[in-house]
Amino acid sequence: MTRNVIGLFIILFGIAAAPTFAEDSQFDPGLPQISWSDTVDHYGTRCVVYGTVVASKDIGSRCFLNFDKDFRTTFTAVVPSNLYGQFTSNPQKLFLNKHVRVVGEIVKFKDKPEIVIAAAGDIQIIDSPEPPKKGEEVKTQGNTVTPEATAKSGTPKAQAPTAFTPAAPKVLTDGVVKIATFNVLNLFDNFDDPYVDSEYYPGKRDSEIENLAKIIRQADADVVAFQEVENRGVLENFVATHLSGMGYCDVVLIEGNNPRGIDVGLISRLPVGEVTSHRHVDFRSADGKDMRFQRDLLQVSIEPEGYSPFDVFVVHLKSKHGGADESRPIRLGETLAIRKKLDRILTNDPQALFVICGDFNDTFDSEPLQRLVGSGDTKLTAFFDDLPEDKRITYNRSYLSMIDFVLGSPGMAGLYVPKSYDVILGTVETNGSDHNLVSAQFKLKKQP
pTM of the full predicted structure? Predict the structure, then answer.
């Protein structure tokens, strides 16, 4: 991924000041100094953009700062979530109704101009929303960057990946297998992939990756399904660097359909058999439009020695970004397509063993989930009734909700270990992600 390494602008006093521009300042007066309304004329150019933030929205993975009520077609400044901790408060509230200047390259995303902020010091609150005249100084309004961020940039460094060395496959002694799912929130590297929009999301800082690993180590699952991983190399490097000694013998990831490169994947201590991607399957959304899975429906056969094999389906359904009602037909289309696949399996073998897990981006009572779960003899089983109400949280930002699940086929539900369903509660700061890890245990039968 591409990452601009920019020295943070240091404001020495907490009161309004009139800074003197330095040649190496990110707000170099030699850059084009433009109004937000003129950004459409500067695609591909690094500029300093001026205006007033009239609307803002934090969706968890990023915060949008809008300069016009018609935010769908006009300039937006985007703050990735890994920068939140570098500001003195949440950027949604910090910059709303403030005059600001933002520095960065203006890119075209969905036919409108944007700047993705690379460091907390790349946006400042100022006295006036108008670009300065030649030679005119810009007065800032206090410091919006934490002392820690000022002293040390949060920019991760690009490092060569560590080679993944598979461990010996685990041999079950009692037949109990633990399956987990974890949306790891933009687990990207710091190398540019020219075929995806991943530069929109900077790589994670070391502390965030360490927190992800801490949660996975705490779960100690035999199979872990992942969402929001950039590519197989990233997942292999993560396992090799941060999960060494945990016995994972297989890493599975097939590039999916998402344009910004967030894929689903899986790691396993147990031998992996056949792997199937459904990324090329054509179907229709609930409103009749031709579509494919937004990411993929990944199907992985797990084949423990001496015990019944089972399949793990990994999903990451369409998010509610852009509006819950607008995105619902896509999620519903995805769940209907998945259900069609599962029905074929269950028609052939009513006791087929599989789980379907991941980030469903909807609550269990929603129509997309209910259509997926189904009814009657082929109904999928959810196990979260084993949890107290205060543990039924898998999305840990506002609004707290349960949108990640491990669901079992009728046959798999019969193997579920009672009271084993679990959610490791946390926050973005403690988890390295805006999701909590979910797990369930199953006691497999020995093969004759």
Answer: 0.68
